[in-house]
Amino acid sequence: MSAAPQLIELDAQLKRLHLASSRRIWRELCARAEKEEWTYQHLLEVLFSEEVAQRKQTRLTKLTRWADFPFLKTIDDYDFTHQSTLRLSMIGSLLSPDFVTQGQNVIFWGKPGRGKTHLAIALAYRAIQNGFDARFTTAAALIEELADAGSKNQLQGLLNKYIAPHVLVVDEVGYLTYGSNAANVLFHVVNARHLGRRAMIFTTNKAPQQWGRVLHDEDLGDAIVDRILERGRVIKLDGPSIRSKHVDPSDLQDVAAVPSNQPAIISGTDRPQFPEPTPSGDSMVRARICWLSEGEGGSATIPTGPTYSTAARFERLREQWPREAWSIVAEFLGSPDEKGCLDARVRLLNSEGPPDLLGIGSRFDLFEGARLVAHGVVLGVEP
Prior knowledge:
The chain has helices at residues 3-16, 20-36, 40-67, 98-101, 116-129, 139-151, 155-163, 182-195, 211-214, 218-230, 310-318, 338-351, 366-374, and strands spanning 105-110, 134-138, 167-173, 199-204, 232-237, 286-290, 329-333. The protein is an alpha/beta fold. It has three domains: 3-59, no CATH class; 75-237, 3-Layer(aba) Sandwich (Rossmann fold); 257-374, no CATH class. The strands form two sheets. The protein has a five-stranded parallel sheet, sandwiched between helices. It has a two-stranded antiparallel sheet with strand order 6-7. α8 links the parallel β3 (167-173) and β4 (199-204). α2 (20-36) runs antiparallel to α3 and α11 packs parallel to α13. The protein is globular, with a radius of gyration of 33 Å. Mean pLDDT is 75; it is low at 263-342 and 344-383.
C-alpha cells in the first residue's frame, strides 16, 4: 500500500473519531518528531495533549457564551485595594470546585459601582474553568420571564432553564420594581436549587432582610434568604464606586440651600462681609468641632434665637458628607476667652487640621458653622 492512501485513511479515521485537533496538526507533529528524533511515546503524548487542550478551550468558549454573561471578568481583574475589609483570601473557597459540588451560595451586597457583578461573573467563570456550567440573569429578567410563563401555565416547563445549571447568577436584586408575584416565582427557583444543592450567586443593593419588601411578600422573602444562607454567606462591599473613582467627590455633592436670613455677602467672597450680631454670654456656652473618624462623635452647643434654625440646618448638611479618617480639633469657650482660643489654634496647627478652622476667632456663629460643614467638617448638634 502506497504512502498516500495510508495518509488518506489516517485522516479519515481521525475524522471518524472526532479528533479535529489531531487531524489538523498530526502531519506537522510527525515532521517535527522525525527532525528532533522523538520517541513514538513522546509523539503520542504531544498529539493527545494538544487534542485535550483544544477540546478544553472549545468547551470553555461554548459554555461562556451559553452562560450569557454581559461581559467577561476574572478574579485577577478585580482591584481589592478599593475594599477596606474584603481580600482575595476571604473568597478563596468560592473559587474552588467545592463551591459547586457542595451547593454553596453567596450574596454580594453593596452600593452601585463596588464590583458586585464583576465578582459574581468571576466566580461563575471560575466554575466553568473547573468543569461546570453556569447561567447569568438579572433578577428583573428572571422574574418577568417566569411570571409571564406562569400566566400562560408554562411555568414548570421554563423553570428547568434556571434550575439545571450548576451555578446560577442572579444580578441586581432590589434595583428595579417587580410585579406582585415576584417572590412567588423567585421562590420556585431558589427552593428547587436549594433542594438540588445547586450553587447560587446573588448581587444586591438591599440588605437581605429587606428582600421581602422588595419582592412584595415578607414571608416568602424571608424563606428565600433563609434557603440561600443555609449553605451560604453575605459579603458586603464598601469603598468608593469603581465606575466613578476618577470623579472629584465634591462634584457629586449638592450645594446647600442658602438660608433666607443669611448675612449679606459680596460676590466672590466666601465669608460674610456684614455679619449679623452673634449672641454672647449664656447663649454661647460651648462649641466643640470634630473632624469625625469612623465610630466617633462630635457635638456643638450653638447660639439660638429668632434668626437661627439650628438642628435642621446642621442635620441636612451633615447627612451630605462622609466621615473622614482622622479627628480632633478645637474647643472654644463661649465667652471671649482669648487664652482658650489661642490654645485651640495651637492644637489645630499641631494636628494639621482643616485650614478653614484656623482663622476662627472667639465667636462661633451658625453661618460660620454652616460654611465649615460645607467644607467637610461634620458637626453633631445638641438640643
